[in-house]
């Protein structure tokens, strides 16, 4: 389920609706997406609002996202202009791993 969330100019996440009624009704593994960061995703799982959280934009820019979340490392900023290019070098493959920025 995609949470009806958005990033505003101040990068503050706003959510006017909740998926909790869907969570209660659905008996399978519940996965949410929609602008979650590390802390918000962990909180959603801890509070049993979801089983799993999907990370799109953050994963594109951080090929080692699970490791970064594990050690609470700084994330690479994503470049939205490169998300759907057919260039094999720019975008998906040119974001640095942690060891490349250390």
- This entry's quaternary arrangement is single chain
- Determine the number of helices (DSSP H or I, runs of at least 4 residues): 5
From the alpha-carbon coordinates, what is the Rg to the nearest angstrom? 15 Å
Order of adjacent strands in the largest pleated sheet: 1-2
Average pLDDT confidence is 84
Give the CA-based shape. Answer: globular
Structural class category: alpha+beta
How far apart are the first and last residues' alpha carbons, in Å? 36 Å
Fraction of residues in helix:
25-40%
Query: What does the main sheet amount to?
Result: 2 strands, antiparallel
Summarize the structure.
Belongs to the NADH:flavin oxidoreductase/NADH oxidase family. InterPro entries: Aldolase_TIM, OxRdtase_FMN_N, Oye-like. It contains 5 helices and 4 strands, in the order E-E-H-E-H-E-H-H-H.
């Amino acid at each position: 389920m995609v949470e009806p969330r958005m990033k505003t100019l101040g990068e503050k996440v706003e959510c006017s609706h909740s998926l909790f009624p869907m969570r209660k009704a659905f008996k399978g593994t519940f996965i949410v997406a929609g602008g979650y960061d590390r802390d918000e995703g962990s909180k959603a799982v801890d509070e049993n609002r979801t089983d799993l959280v999907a990370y799109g934009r953050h994963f594109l820019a951080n090929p080692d996202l699970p490791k970064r979340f594990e050690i609470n490392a700084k994330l690479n900023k994503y470049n939205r202009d490169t998300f759907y290019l057919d260039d094999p070098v720019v975008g998906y493959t040119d974001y640095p791993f942690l060891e490349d920025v250390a």
